[in-house]
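Sync notes, pocket subgroup
Present: LS, DG
LS reminded everyone that the earlier model was apo-only. Rerun requested with arginine included. Inputs:
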Amino acid sequence: MSSQLAKKSSAWSARFSEPVSAIVQRYTASVTFDKRLALYDIAASVAHAQMLAAQDILSQEDWIAIQKGMSQIKEEIEAGEFEWKIELEDVHLNIEARLTTLIGIAGKRLHTGRSRNDQVATDIRLWLRDTIDECIFALTRLQTSLLDLATLHANLIMPGFTHLQVAQPVTFGHHLLAYVEMFGRDTSRLQDVRKRVNQLPLGAAALAGTSFPIDRQQVAQSLGFEGICANSLDAVSDRDFAIEFTAAAALVMTHISRLSEELVLWMSPSLGFIDIADRFCTGSSIMPQKKNPDVPELARGKTGRVNGHLMALLTLMKSQPLAYNKDNQEDKEPLFDTADTVLDTLRIFAEMVPGITPKPEKMRLAALKGFATATDLADWLVKRGMPFRDAHEAVANAVKTASALNIDLAELSLQQLQELIPEIDDTVFEVLTLEGSVAARQHPGGTSTEQVRQQIASWRQRLSKNG
Ligand code: ARG
């Protein structure tokens, strides 16, 4: 049976002796998802038409008609009244066709000196520029939430872990600040990507440029681009800016995922370090006692999805010969979903962080359990002249003894300690406490409360400049 033919003819159908089959029409169309670019497409078309008129490539009447038509189309789209047609393939041809219906021949002149190839590259860059700004705003909000929580708990002691084994005491504020640093680097990565996104492809036309005397600088200026893409072949073909954004987003999600993993662990009754407000948790349909940290779990899961989008885009780009290929139409869904996922996640985390309540007693008991001040004892001996390696061994013996007695280092008597390490006197107990250990780490980057407060203050200043 021969395949069904599509009903309507396309913008390019004059060269063809038959319409595409219905399945090909559906397969090649992108309007179902790229209509999301509509308002950017209109803005870019208006800037293009304005330049054409300024260069006398379009008449003033045509330019006025195009502006009028486009503002009506914008209203229709915003009101949800615009009728998207799959037979018109994509957002660009849908809008152009509607413009021609509304204003006639001037609509048919709009495409002078451009191609959908430079048009789509321009639209994506405009959309991505706004999206990056939204991501940076959302990151700043999340950092602010973390700073607020860190301020409340700058001196709350918890165990710090390496290998998930109790290592040394840290403050909860210090732990939270580690994530503020990560999200700070994410922000600067996005700011960096933004510079490369913010270059104008329009004017490259299909691939080689155009024979019309266009003014690309004017278009760049009216659309707020920092500069123009210098090579027309490159301008229409590369999507490295989209890949870079997705890579930066994958790192944001990776940081979110690490935080999520910690929240899940901390909320597990076996650690019990925190509680998360009920509005961010769900129950179980079978086990009445359950309160599950669904939001962090789901965020951890969604990280995989963004990593997948990064792989999809890298794979999409590899092996593409210059210049534009239809493969590039596949850039949009991963890109859009990356933006939606990362923005939703950042926003929900900014709201959830104030709903985190630490449980100081549980944290303290856990910190006391794992010989968290053993390094402090070794440091104490080193300060009295013992080489670090010898101090390490002496303390390891003390830990072995305390462990056999099922008590903490600080619970060994002075006599017991002196039997193991004769150099010891009773001033050692000051450094064996959790508070003593934390207070001793008094240098930039250290966990002492004073340092944490300084870090918070310096971050607040940096963020106020951002916003
Ligand atoms: N919908 C297309 C895309 O997203 C627009 C460019 C199509 N260009 C072409 N020559 N078919 O890439």
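DG: The chain is about 60% helix and 5% strand.
LS: The CA atoms of residues 120 and 411 lie 70 Å apart.
Action: DG to write up.
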